[in-house]
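[step 3/7] fold_predict: job queued, chain A
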Amino acid sequence: MAKRKRVVPDFMLDNPDDSFMFLMPLSMKPHLNEDIGNSYFNVAVKNLTQNKYFKARIAPELFFTRFKLQKAYKNAKLDRSKNKKTKSSNKHFLLIHD
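[step 4/7] structure written:
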């Protein structure tokens, strides 16, 4: 039987002790000459441990199947200690466009 292959983004491999949160997709770069599997999303990511924001390239299959928005991950696993919601952090904002 084949071994299960884990796909972990590079920034998580470089910082295995940090927690990361995928905030929102910024854009999609489709690769139209080949198949859609060569496309990627630019995603806004927050390093919760260092309180830094950056942009990362994530494959669509990882983005839709493995990682969810607004959830904390540590070494590509769900970080339950960072995902606990408190009343102060559970604020919702309504944006109105004229």
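[step 5/7] annotate
Strands lie at 19-29, 40-47, 52-58, 72-74, 77-78.
Residues 60-65 form the longest helix (6 residues).
exit 0
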